[in-house]
Design goal:
Elements lengths: L4 H12 L2 E6 L4 E4 L8 H9 L4 H8 L10 E3 L10 E8 L2 E9 L9 H32 L4 H14 L8 E8 L19 E2 L7 E5 L7 H14 L8 E5 L9 H17 L7 E2 L14 H8 L2 H9 L1 H13 L4 H8 L3 H15 L6 H21 L1
Helix pairs in contact: 1-4, 4-5, 8-13, 9-10, 10-11, 10-12, 10-13, 11-12
Length: about 375
């Protein structure tokens, strides 16, 4: 029977009568027990943020825990508001996969030490199995998103052999993106996500393939996106991060389509990081066009000299007036109200816009072209910086 990590932690807490926490080798929280005694700041923060800070990690590693042959006693440090601890390295085949932490409110009974070490060994075996499976499936995610259909089909079959879902399971893809550029954010603590979520590795480390409860229901993908964003809070990186969710696809082999959509949604979200919640492909509307061509070609397609002149010479006031008027479907009453100006002032500005652009705002075709340009060009120009 495969041991459950939470059960192992509960067993360690039972035999030692201490507060016990299991972290992986990156100090991400894996499991913890409930305990009635008062916890120190490190234990509370680890449980709340699901990881220890880099400062805490450096402090504990300074006691040689990564190379220790057995339990390491770490004394209390009142200046750091830390209680004393016993750290039991969790290993499998001489490789450290994590640490069992016992918060000391009394000494460990030597009589329970053999059982405690056995629990640590079993936890090491299970962490090693999880790590290997995550790594293997993570590399397969890259093949699943390949441009070659044969490679995608083979990867889907191979993943399904180890995955707890059938190949025909509907999925959606979540992509995280740093607001400041195309780079992937720092890795997400995979222990914060359901085990059935496929996590990309290397450059795809910000990609999550999520099995859906129903074919068109993105509820699970939304939950994973929110969990992944929450897992990044409190990490060493201060770079704002946004999430994009692709549309649902019917099979694992079709994940590439959802991935491409999720990347566009994340890209759009990067222009408005204050938006509430992750952006979803089905809700992107005209912003889907950002994925149909390279930025220079798309920019060339939606612009013309008169529109460039408006952007260059019209100033923020005229550009905002034009976009508001078009957003309000050409309703002068609603546009004036949204802008907080008199309707005659609006008419005067619209005349100036027509002169600068050479467009007729009574023409549906001209209005469509201007609306597309004013909607998309700021995104394209921002991406080019």
């Amino acid at each position: 029977m495969v041991p459950d990590l939470q059960d192992l932690v509960d067993d360690a807490a039972r035999i030692t009568e201490m507060a016990v926490t299991l972290e992986d080798r990156e100090f991400n929280l894996v499991a913890f027990c409930s305990h009635q005694s008062v916890a120190d700041e490190v234990r509370r923060d680890s449980i709340l943020t699901r990881r220890s800070t880099s400062q805490v990690r450096r402090y504990y590693e300074s006691f040689g825990i990564a190379r220790a042959d057995g339990p390491v006693h770490i004394p209390a440090d009142p200046e750091r508001h830390l209680f004393g601890r016993v750290c039991v390295p969790v290993r499998w085949q001489a490789v450290t996969y994590g640490y069992l932490w016992l918060v000391e409110d009394h000494a460990v009974d030597p009589a329970v030490l053999p059982e405690l070490l056995d629990l640590a060994n079993r936890a090491g075996m299970e962490l090693a199995r999880h790590s290997r499976l995550r790594d293997d499936l993570g590399w397969k995610v890259g093949e699943l998103l390949s441009t070659y259909p044969e490679t995608r089909a083979r990867a889907a079959r191979e993943i399904a052999e180890s995955w707890a879902r059938a190949e025909a399971t509907p999925v959606a893809v979540v992509v995280l993106r740093s607001v400041g550029g195309d780079q992937a954010p720092v890795p997400v603590n995979a222990w914060r996500l359901p085990r059935t979520v496929l996590v990309g590795t290397a450059e795809l480390g910000s990609t999550f393939i999520v099995p859906l409860g129903a074919a068109e229901d993105l509820t699970q993908a939304r939950a994973v996106a929110k969990a992944a964003l929450a897992a990044l809070r409190g990490t060493a990186s201060d770079e704002p991060v946004v999430a994009g969710i692709g549309g649902p696809v019917g099979t694992l082999a079709g994940a590439r389509d959802s991935w491409l959509q999720a990347r566009i949604a994340a890209r759009v979200g990067a222009y408005d990081p204050g938006a509430s919640g992750p952006l979803e492909w089905p809700d992107l509307g005209v912003y889907r066009l950002l994925g149909v061509a390279a930025d220079p070609r798309l920019r060339q397609a939606v612009t013309r000299p008169g529109i460039e002149r408006l952007l260059r010479e019209g100033g923020d006031e005229l550009v905002r007036t034009a976009l508001t008027y078009l957003d309000e479907a050409g309703s002068a009453q609603r546009a004036a109200l949204a802008l907080g100006i008199h309707r005659q002032t609006l008419y005067h500005r619209l005349e100036r816009i027509e002169k600068l652009t050479g467009l007729d705002l009574d023409s549906g075709r001209d209005r469509l072209g201007l609306h597309l340009a004013l909607t998309l060009l700021p995104r394209l120009d921002e991406a080019a910086r």
